[in-house]
Amino acid sequence: MKKFTIGAALLTMMFNGVYAQSLKSPDGKFEMNFQLKNGVPVYNLKYNGSVVVEDSKLGIRLFKDSSIKFASEIAKPEDASFDLNNGFTKTAEKRDSKNETWQPILGEKKNYINHYNELALTLNQASSDRSIIVKFRLFNDGLGFRYEFPQQKNLNYFVIREEDSEIDFPTDMKAWWIVADYDSQEYQYQTTKISEIPTQWPKAYDSNASQTLIKNAVQSPLMLKKEGKEPLYVNVGEAAVLDYPASHLEVDAQNFKFKTHLTADRQGAKAYVQTPSTTPWRTIIVSPKAEVVMDSKMMFNLNEPTKYKDTSYIKPTKYMGVWWEMIIGKSQWAYSTAENVHIDKTDFSKLTPNGKHAANNTKVKEYIDFASANGFQGLLIEGWNTGWEDWFGHSKEFVFDFITPYPDFDIKMLNEYAHSKNVDLIMHHETSGSATNYERWADKAFQLMNKYGYKSVKTGYVGDIIPRGEHHYSQWTNNHYYRIAEKANEYKIMVNSHESVRPGGESRTYPNWISAEAARGTEYDAFGGNNPDHHVILPFTRWMGGSMDYTPGIFQTKLDYYFPGDKRFVKTTLAKQLALYVTMYMPLQMAADLPENYAKHMDAFQFIKDVAADWDDTKILSAEPGEYVHTARKAKGTDNWFVGGITDENARDYTVDFSFLDKGKKYEATVYEDGKDADYEKNPQSYKIYKKTVDSKTKLPIHLVRSGGYAISLKPIK
């Protein structure tokens, strides 16, 4: 009777569609369970037997056909019959696993380990005779899942209205978040409970050059913490965002639940799909240790290996730039006083110079001299090309041609001069959001770069996107970024994008896209300001999916140095600026300040000269989101190590444990730390430098002042 009862119960569960499929991580600590509840796909996630994600629905809403009308984001009841979120039965199940080691072209470690167990479930919707696959990969640091659409009779072309992937948490966790926006990630991070997000949301943003906010939604990667006796850290993100819009997270604050919200185009459509196709991976990284979450490479592992045949041109680069002086307002990008120019008609040599154009021959040669004397490989120059007089705010499509220099910028002479001093100039292509114009000129622009020996380009997308109605993170524009990366690869050029979509590990597939901005960088210290905790949140959020061009190294943090009475300042100590070169991964690594400011502190500048930009190993020594980060990295191809530590607005004491060093070896440590009287507001340039012999048994106590830090270079003693 007992056997019959159990068997009958199981049979009933199967017919009702609630029989669960389980998947465990390679180490057995994670368990993902999937089931169909009355035909609706549902999953949950456990860690060491405890629920991390409660039952959460999966599904895709579709338009009824591919003819989209304006304002069609307004759904009608009859449209629900076209959705792929209910009425499913499981028709197939496939399991797989992988344990591989791969080498990133540029990375935080020499080897990345990709170890997971996989479950792929084929679901059929009988009412429409359509099938989809929901694929799960469970790693030792969390879960990734996505939707796959096989080519089939009734599902060849379709338009996505919305993706409804839910992540339902059992508790009200602490969250580090920025407001959701189709066009910008350049916001101050907020720290609240999930339940408090709607209350804080209206106060969590300022204006931006392009802005389309999503009320009560936040952006990913989203960092969360379950507090208490058994803390748990959770990071929610996405990976491999290819031929698809970037997503945001709608907040159900009362139920501690998040739901995917895709970036739309002007018609309200989210993605145009032709099968076979896949969505990006949704990622949930989990650990009781913040250091493990920060160190995760799950997003990279969920991307495909590169198909590039030649990656030899992709190299880490340390550079300076004719940039900061324009950001702070000392110089200008524009050459003339004109307010209305035409790229194909205006004779710029006949215009009246404004006297503040930074990209001129004399100034650029001075920067080249300083960069060369101090071993920098590159020099970025912004404002070199015609069109800056009316580049912004006019929805102007033909805004730059990317090949014509201003009269006071001799492109041939300056490149020859730079090369004679072993410096490569770095090209700047600001598009003013006109992606169509950039694609039209890309070949000629990259040909010009090849002609003069430019090896890398900084692209920019300030302002609303053209084609008009698209957004910075919509499907079309995301595809544009990868078209540019592929085109650049044809010319052996590396790309550093600004105002573009945030990375989700795609550098594994497109390794020449070596860095991006896609967050609030150093420039905001001259705009609205960055809070002291900004630098200890970014490694847990923006940096999870790839390198950021944060542009650190500001030694003259008080802007009243240039403009008496100016209240703007960089909210760090000088020592913290040094530490950022270690705590922030940047294979394209900028020393952003003016040469004259470095010349006054050449002893501290030595660390920026010495620190590596590519790594064989990385150790997260200690970290807590929003509070502090301590990181050690081993330089690529050497036995040299570098250590950096930073704090928020609170002073802290920390003891550096050098047990990561090779046993039996002694190292010369050069320590750069906050001075005893240092303070990020009152005395930011106070620092102390000293040398010390250390080994793997050494423990070094260090004091970090408010928004302070320290940096250490370690070289083996032979």
TrEMBL record:
GO molecular function, one term: carbohydrate binding
Sorted UniProt keywords: Calcium, Hydrolase, Signal
InterPro entries assigned: Aldolase_TIM, GH, GH-type_carb-bd, GH97_C, GH97_catalytic, GH97_N, Glycosyl_hydrolase_97
SUPFAM superfamilies: (Trans)glycosidases
Cofactor annotation: Ca(2+)
Coiled-coil blocks: none
Domain Glycosyl-hydrolase 97 C-terminal oligomerisation: start-end pairs: 614-715
Signal peptide range: 1-20
A Pfam family annotated for this UniProt entry: GH97_C
The Glycosyl-hydrolase 97 N-terminal domain, residue ranges: 23-305
Residue intervals of the Glycosyl-hydrolase 97 catalytic domain: 323-519
Record's subunit section: Monomer.
PANTHER family: GLUCAN 1,4-ALPHA-GLUCOSIDASE SUSB, GLUCAN 1,4-ALPHA-GLUCOSIDASE SUSB-RELATED
Entry protein name: Glycosyl hydrolase family 97
